Amino acid sequence: MKKKYIILTIFLFIISLGILNNKSLASFYIQNFEINSEVQNNGDMIVEENITYYSDENKNGVTREINTKNSNNFNNSADGLNLISVKVDGNVAKKVNFGTIGDEGVYEYTSSGNTYNLKVYVPFRGVQKRTITYKYLLKNVGVRYNDTSEIYWNFIGDEWDTKISNLTINIKLPDEVANGTIYVYGHGSDNGTFTKNRNNIKLYAKDLKANQALDARILFPTNALLKTTKIVNKSVLNKYINQEEGLTNKREEPEIIFNLNAKNIAYILSIIVIIIWIIIYFRYDKEIKVKKQYYYREIPCDLEPEVLQRIYYGKNQKNSFWIAFLNLVKLGVYKIEETTNEVGKKVKVITYLGKENKELKDYQNSLINTINGFFDVGKNSIEIEKLNAKMKRSTGSGYKRFVDKLEEQIESYFGDNTKVSKKPFYISIIIMVIVIAIIGLTAIRVQPDMAITIGMFLIFTTFIYSAIFSKVSFNLYAILLVLIHFFAFESGIIGMLSIARINVLYIPYIIAFVFLQYTQRIRRLSKEEREIREQIKGLRRYLRDYSKISERDLESIIIWEDYLVIAIALKLNKKTINYLYDYCKDNLNNNFGNSLNSFETYYYMNIICRSAFNNYTRRYISSNTSRYSGGSSFSGSSGGFSGGSSSGGRRTAEVEEEAPFKRRWRKVLFPFSIFYIVGKFS
């Protein structure tokens, strides 16, 4: 199974490298963007742009597109553009009709409708900075109303496909307004600032992403534009101030559906998903309360150790095959002994005693048939080393049959109560689809050219990784998947949503995604199974705290051989198991005791015998085939226990297996940890 994890990790790592590599290609960006503009009293505005590009790759030049139409307010559009000059690193560039790749300091200039295009031939070779200066005049930008004058200009449009590290916009208004009241409103950047000194205004912003627009609306006294011909006979000052100083504006938070903007949609969706999550929990996942059993000395319902293990952990464990075999040794079906082979070497041998036992379960008979299938023809025994070698070469299909039969046995105990409802899972899928659809609809409204990409990323990440998470246990490989792949995919999604200025919708997406993972791990136990599990917990505590039991109690207990196998099945610490092993070996004269006496310690027996079974079961991991646990690696119940303790209340040398309570909550915390890690890196 580890091999599959490694192959999966390598495969997804290659995909991630491609995505990260595409992202890393954005090594061409604007380091500094300085705009100096001067408003004339006839409404024109002279603009000078000093743009410093940084590149660590070869490029042949840059392009600049200027749109004179203001989509937010048509009155504030420019009537035209006059190009004054273009400079490259301070040197005047020459206009040409057609440039050639490799040319230095020449440019092409064309216009179409409201759009003016410049293509500057300025080669970049390796790591290099180049500064391009554009100077032009915008005709009739300013508007004069009855009670105010206005400049409303898109200084940085959404046509920029590179990020801008530092942006500075200097605006000089006519001297007539130096002592008047000036209102400044910037749009498009959450971390932008501005300063105002008489008739000079400075706006500053950092880290603008590609396609992130930034504009400014400036309201100032009417005497500044006495010569303009763009006059609107109405009063708008109070209207515009109220509009700008409101909580939102249509450009930054467009209404998507039902007069709701992205932020309101995010809040409503998040609340709805959380409410449904709570309902699902109480309806399908909240455990039924039963009487607690702190200490329980009996074997619950006389269940076999491998069955107790399956109920306690909520899924088959990798050593369940070995536990079932050890139980058959206790039942007298097999014995393990030390003998001398034909060459005089002492070896450990497993012998089938051939005893008929009509009370054996189907899964036990399946195990017997599997083990006996490795015996040589006509033999009823096999050396453990030979068994180990044969099991290594086997497909593990015998263990699969054993697991299936064991699952059927579990289901026979609890009937239909073992069935896991699929309704929560289907509900979570519907919610996830709705959330993705709304994000896609929003993207279409605010950033149409990115909508398809955003939708594809969301669909891929959601459903492909949901399938992966349902199969991958919380181990080193899962952590690698989180760090490598979610860093690539989720940071890409966050980046695209940020560019589209709808990153607030990532909140309901996270909640819905985690909800989807949660519904894949729901398994509420029936009252009967909860009662049995509580009894198993009590029995485990009783065995764990053996050092607190008096010697007289030890001598009065006659089922220590059962306790030994159960202690192994419930993964108690080595000190406890070796104590039980020594007690059984010294006080039993039956087949089980004789089998134990063929080994010096249980630890030695475990190393020699269990390795053979592990080699076999490794080819078939029960967590991937467990119908009862819904394929989950995180099933478990509420309630839990402290670690094992020796006399004096100290911790034992070996930490015990994690309690089901912790594993139960980890089925919810695991997806949250994914996004915590993503957030730290994105």
Task: Offer a quick outline of the entry.
This protein is α+β, with helices and mostly antiparallel strands and 682 residues long. The chain has helices at 2-24, 237-244, 262-285, 305-313, 320-330, 362-372, 384-393, 397-414, 423-446, 448-471, 476-499, 506-519, 527-544, 551-556, 560-569, 574-587, 591-597, 602-617, 660-681, and strands spanning 29-39, 45-56, 59-67, 80-88, 91-92, 94-95, 106-112, 115-124, 127-139, 143-144, 149-156, 164-172, 183-187, 193-197, 200-208, 214-220, 255-257, 260-261, 334-340, 346-352, 381-383.
Task: Write up what this structure looks like.
This protein has 682 residues and is α+β, with helices and mostly antiparallel strands. It has 3 domains: 222 residues, Sandwich (Immunoglobulin-like), CATH 2.60.40; 164 residues, no CATH class; 234 residues. Helix content is 43%, strand content 21%. The chain contains 19 helices and 21 strands. The strands form 5 sheets. An 8-stranded mixed β-sheet has the order 5-4-9-2-1-12-15-14, with no helix packed on it. A hairpin with a 5-residue loop joins β1 and β2. α1 packs parallel to α11, α7 runs parallel beside α18 and α15 packs antiparallel against α16. The longest helix is centred in the middle third of the chain and has 24 residues. The two termini are 31 Å apart. The relative contact order is 0.10.
